[in-house]
Design a protein that fits this description.
Helix content is 32%, strand content 24%. By secondary structure, the protein is α/β, with parallel strands linked by helices. It has 7 domains: 104 residues, PriA, 3(prime) DNA-binding domain (GIY-YIG endonuclease, 3-Layer(aba) Sandwich), CATH 3.40.1440; 58 residues; 74 residues; 185 residues, 3-Layer(aba) Sandwich (Rossmann fold), CATH 3.40.50; 182 residues, P-loop containing nucleotide triphosphate hydrolases (Rossmann fold, 3-Layer(aba) Sandwich), CATH 3.40.50; 49 residues, no CATH class; 90 residues, Alpha-Beta Plaits. The protein has a 7-stranded parallel beta sheet with strand order 14-15-13-16-17-12-18, with helices on both faces. A 6-stranded parallel beta sheet has the order 19-29-28-20-27-26, sandwiched between helices. A 5-stranded antiparallel beta sheet has the order 2-1-4-3-5. β22 and β23 form a beta hairpin. It is globular, with a radius of gyration of 31 Å. It binds a DNA duplex (12 and 12 nucleotides) through β1, β2 and β3. It comes from Metabacillus malikii.
Length: 804
DNA sequence: AGCACGCCGACT
DNA sequence: GTCGGCGTGCTC
């Protein structure tokens, strides 16, 4: 007898363990760990993951697995173990860990159906009766529209109705019907004579098979080619001459797209030195972490491509992570161009179904390389030869919901399991990674030169306070104006970055200082030109733009801050002849809009590309010779100890967009704090100094990489409750952490209220604290009941990326 | 998380 | 006396 340990799809602390089930006789040979199954769980049915098969169990009254969902495991043994590791590292539920590894399409959906099992339809109340006229099963949702649950319940108790719990899949494999000939062509010819002469279409179909020497053909194609109808085909199938089969097909997001084949480029001296140790590690199957620190344009990608080539030639597989790849279609081109059909692409721009199909290609070992965003790190490869994380410093590698994992940590874990190298690449590495490379934990590979030997574009810092004193009240400094006009005349292109994060346009009364805030969140509402609305970015609350101040009824109510829309308006005024493309959430939320806009810009159908963060990454257009940063310092004022680091990274990256090819580039950075070191140092491309300066600060303030951080956030509609719970947590932590661990708080979160819930937090700074995970878990367990019954929420983020 | 069970108040 | 509220505890 075989028993299966199953992790059920119920996200709760009490169910966060394996439950044992009997494996029915007929599936004993089929089952294996990593498969999804449907199991009875209490009165209902749920999906679950088999994590173990065993011949023994402690539990006596076992139920049986009711269904198999997979015929091949969707989780490899390695991934099952990785799930265990993830739950420990991020304090999440086991199911959540497994679900994070799989495409969303594979998450189960649950529905309840009511079936009539009585004798007389008349026995049902008249409200319910009509539903069952002509059918036995009805969706509970439909009946609930007219009847109360209690009414239905009564019928269940007296045996007229029953509830059936159904588990459904979100998306399924897309299939086409394929028609095959059952026998050889000579046998087909013989069949011809047996077919009645008046069945002309049947003859046509058989002839079609014979003359075209067809083994199989999609049904649709066969019908259109022979002008036959499907009944004719059915007749032949029932005669056994033809066979029908459902064949899985892939929704290919890159269908109909040609990718120009590219060949390896010769590597320069630096690149060769960088690739050497990587190739060595691949060859010798060594787990090593490399930090490839290479300035923008130094040819990191070519090093990736050639290392991958080596991995694939050895018959192994590779994962390449890129930050939100839809932002860099150019990147997809480079990988598809070099490795063609060996590549699967996974990113947020794909539909659920497309993502599922790409994942299936990996599972079925039809590809050897996956290029994708964060979650692609879980690609179910079994012979990994290398993992690459490009733009290692990008914050999108950290998932901001449970499980709060960092792709870099997962990559290193998997690298160890597979004995393969992990390559982290960046022009502006995180302090954490660079510090590790200094300590020799990671091996540092440096690329100092740009491949085309071009210098980095020269950077001019403009003091906007000075501009204001000189009477320039616009958002463009005189210098930036000059240069934009100049580019326009020379038919060169400009990229304008509006660094908006943490600083959106809000409405303020000039007389009394009143700011329109969200009634549910402690945050000011954001002004949206479209529809003249004020919107809350946290809960979605909307209200119309007021004409007068709600507080003092003054008419001097204005919006402050600058949105891309407003910049665009002003640009149109001062440079009427310029063609502008604006890229922000509003213009890119449609699928493919992003790529379209970029293509348009690339084809020089516009002179200026104006956008937020999203334009800072990976764009490479030869005619861009000017980059303007409208307000460099907005990010600096955020309550985030990484603010300076992030500002430096952003400025360096966006500067790298200029002058990548023949034409030299220039950068203008506008700021109100020109003296700030991260602005100064980014203008000199001086990462080393930034590293030293910032490390000093992190040391004095006990921040990463000197200390690890854990952030506990408590929220509840009642502020008193929040404060007291956070206080309790802090006290408990103080009593149970290591000596050199520091506890800060309780304090109100930077956004003290979201969706009518008050938020408090406490920060744990620790160096080595082996029991901290256990202590934190105990806290969660202690409040578990209140978290389910009372509206309490406690979230723990280990190594948070943001303090918000 | 869901769902059943079980124990109390307010109604036919 | 029952209906219907919510606290409690279990799910292989």
């Amino acid at each position: 007898m075989k028993y299966a340990s199953v992790i059920v799809d119920v996200q709760a602390m009490q169910t966060d363990r394996a439950f044992d089930y009997k494996v029915p006789e007929e599936w004993q040979q089929l089952v294996s760990p990593g498969m999804r199954v449907i199991v009875p769980f209490g009165p209902r049915k749920v999906q679950g993951f088999i994590v173990e098969l065993k011949n023994q169990t402690d539990y006596e009254k076992l139920k049986s697995i009711s269904d198999l969902v997979d015929l091949t495991p969707c989780l490899t043994t390695e991934l099952i173990e990785l799930g265990q590791w993830l739950t420990e590292k991020t304090l999440c539920f086991k199911v959540s860990a497994f679900q994070a590894m799989l495409p969303a399409a594979m998450k189960a959906k649950y529905e309840k159906v009511i079936r009539f099992i009585g004798d007389e339809l008349e026995a049902l109340p008249f409200t319910i009766r009509p539903f069952f006229e002509g059918k036995i099963e009805v969706d509970l949702k439909d009946i609930e529209q007219v009847a109360s649950f209690r009414e239905i319940h009564k019928e269940i108790e007296c045996g007229n109705l029953e509830v059936i719990y159904k588990v459904k899949q979100k998306t399924n494999k897309k299939t086409v019907k394929v028609i095959k000939a059952s026998e050889t062509f000579s046998a087909l010819s013989e069949h011809l004579s047996a077919i009645p002469a008046n069945a002309k279409k049947q003859h046509d179909i058989i002839h079609y098979f014979i003359t075209n020497r067809l083994n199989e053909i999609p049904l649709q194609l066969l019908l259109s080619e022979t002008k036959a109808s499907d009944t004719t085909v059915k007749a032949l199938i029932s005669k056994g001459i033809l066979q029908e089969e459902n064949r899985e097909i892939y929704r290919d997001p890159y269908e109909n797209r040609e990718f120009e084949k590219t060949n390896p480029l010769p590597l320069n001296e630096e690149q060769q030195q960088a690739i050497g140790p990587i190739i060595h590690a691949i060859d010798k199957k060594l787990h090593e972490v490399f930090l490839m620190y290479g300035v923008t344009g130094s040819g990191k990608t070519e090093v990736y491509l050639q290392s991958i080539d080596k991995v694939l030639k050895e018959g192994r597989e590779a994962i390449v992570l890129v930050p939100e790849i839809s932002l860099t279609p150019q990147m997809v081109h480079r990988f598809k161009g070099r490795f063609g059909s060996k590549v699967a692409v996974l990113h947020s721009g794909l539909s659920t179904g497309e993502k599922y199909d790409e994942w299936r290609k990996i599972q079925r070992k039809e590809v050897q390389l996956v290029v994708g965003a964060r979650s692609a790190i879980f690609a179910p490869f079994e012979k990994l030869g290398m993992i690459i994380i490009d733009e290692e410093h990008e914050s999108s590698y950290k998932q901001e919901e449970n499980p709060r994992y960092h792709a870099r940590d997962v990559a290193i874990y998997r690298g160890k399991q597979h004995n393969c190298p992990v390559v982290l690449g960046s022009a502006t590495p995180t302090l954490e990674s660079f510090a590790r490379s200094q300590k020799g934990v990671y091996k540092l590979l440096t690329l100092k030169e740009r491949v085309n030997k071009r210098n980095m574009p020269s950077v001019e810092i403009v003091d906007m306070r000075e501009e204001l004193r000189n009477g320039n009240r616009s958002m463009f400094s005189a210098s930036l104006m000059d240069k934009m006009t100049d580019r326009l005349n020379k038919h060169e292109q400009t990229v304008l970055l509006l660094n908006k994060r943490g600083y959106s346009s809000f409405v303020m009364c000039r007389d009394c200082g009143y700011v329109n805030g969200c009634p549910h969140c402690d945050i000011s509402l954001t002004y949206h030109l479209r529809g003249q609305q004020l919107k809350c970015h946290y809960c979605g609350y909307e209200e119309p733009l007021p004409n007068t101040c709600p507080e003092c009824e003054s008419e001097h109510i204005r919006y402050f801050g600058t949105g891309t829309q407003k910049v665009e308006e002003e640009l149109v005024k001062i440079l009427p002849e310029a063609r502008i493309i604006r890229m922000d959430v509003d213009t890119t939320n449609r699928k493919g809009a992003h790529e379209k806009l970029l293509t348009k810009f690339g084809q020089k159908q516009a002179d200026i590309l104006l956008g937020t963060q999203m334009i800072a990454k990976g764009l490479d257009f030869p005619d861009v010779t000017l980059v303007g940063v409208l307000t460099a310092d907005t990010m600096l004022n955020l309550p985030d100890f990484r603010a300076s680091e992030k500002t430096f990274q952003l400025l360096t990256q966006v500067s790298g967009r200029a002058g990548r090819h023949e034409l030299p580039g220039e950068v203008v950075i506008q700021t109100y704090t020109p003296e700030h070191y991260s602005i100064q140092l980014s203008s000199q491309y001086d990462y080393d100094s930034l590293f030293r300066h910032e490390m000093q600060l992190r040391k004095t303030h006990a921040y990463p990489p000197y200390y690890f951080i854990a952030l506990v956030t408590v929220s509840h509609p009642d502020i008193m409750k929040v404060v007291s719970v956070t206080e309790t947590i802090v006290q408990y932590l103080r009593r149970n952490v290591a000596n050199d661990t520091r506890i800060l708080g309780p304090v109100a979160s930077p956004i003290p209220r979201i969706k009518d819930r008050y938020r408090y937090q406490c920060m744990v700074k620790y160096k080595r604290d082996n029991d901290l995970h256990i202590t934190l878990r105990k806290i969660l367990e202690h409040f578990q009941q209140e978290m389910t019954t009372n509206q309490l929420m406690i979230s723990v983020d280990l190594n948070p990326n943001t303090m918000m």
